[in-house]
Design brief:
Blueprint (H helix, E strand, L loop, with lengths): L1 H14 L5 H5 L6 E4 L2 E6 L14 E6 L9 H10 L25 H16 L7 H12 L6 H7 L18 H8 L7 H7 L9 H10 L1
Antiparallel strand pairs: 1-2, 2-3
Helix pairs in contact: 1-3, 1-4
């Protein structure tokens, strides 16, 4: 039961924000805070994990009112777990730890397995991987800058497309796309476009629509 509750709290960080598995399951209590309608998650190195790149050190924001029955599950779990810790150790204790040892990481593979089995059960794909969520989020963060209005309307019904900053006379600037990949911990936009876009033809959506309208 505890593993299932761990998975319930950790999976949204992976599935909705594209965090790496070690980043989500290696959180300490000091890394989580709830402010207004957002849950702030700070990703940084600790005794349990290291950052893959310098850009890996970042903040992730989870809107509290976004996931219906998942509202506040991460912050609620962390709050309840912290109450069991002594004041001296609560901040640096791990959020996802065994009941008897708040500084142990031995259960993280088991938690990840529960998340993975839930994913495979829902999708019906027995070869699904948790890292696939990261690729999906990468697409959702950058696709809107390339989509025509018609394609955006169609895809927004099945994908959580990000809202990009637009400028008069300009669809989107490189800096706006760069800002969308910061939450993934990527340093370069071309890394996201080259390795995370498995439907590369969608990047031609806007230009194809313009050609179709003109000819």
């Amino acid at each position: 039961v505890r593993l299932s509750r761990h998975a319930y709290a950790a999976l949204p960080v992976i599935a909705f924000r594209g965090a790496r598995r070690s980043e989500a399951l290696g959180l300490q209590h000091r890394d989580i805070a709830e402010e207004g309608d957002q849950i702030h998650v700070r990703v940084r190195a600790n005794s349990s994990r290291r950052m893959k790149t310098a850009r890996g050190r970042r903040r992730i924001y989870l809107p509290v009112g976004l996931f219906s029955n998942l509202d506040g599950s991460l912050s609620s779990w962390a709050r309840n777990e912290r109450k069991r810790q002594t004041l001296q150790r609560s901040e640096t204790a791990f959020v996802f730890a065994p009941l008897t040892d708040a500084r142990s990481a031995v259960e993280r593979n088991d938690i990840a397995e529960v998340c993975l089995q839930a994913c495979r059960e829902v999708t019906g794909r027995r070869h699904s991987r948790l890292h696939g969520f990261r690729h999906l989020v990468g697409m959702e963060q950058t696709l809107p800058g390339f989509l025509s209005s018609a394609d955006h309307d169609v895809l927004s019904s099945t994908m959580r497309l990000a809202t990009l900053v637009t400028h008069p006379g300009v669809t989107v600037l490189p800096r706006d796309l760069q800002a969308q990949i910061l939450s993934l911990g990527h340093n370069r936009l071309d890394t996201t476009l080259q390795w995370y876009h498995h439907l590369a033809w969608l990047l031609r959506s806007r230009s194809d629509a313009r050609l179709s309208d003109r000819y």
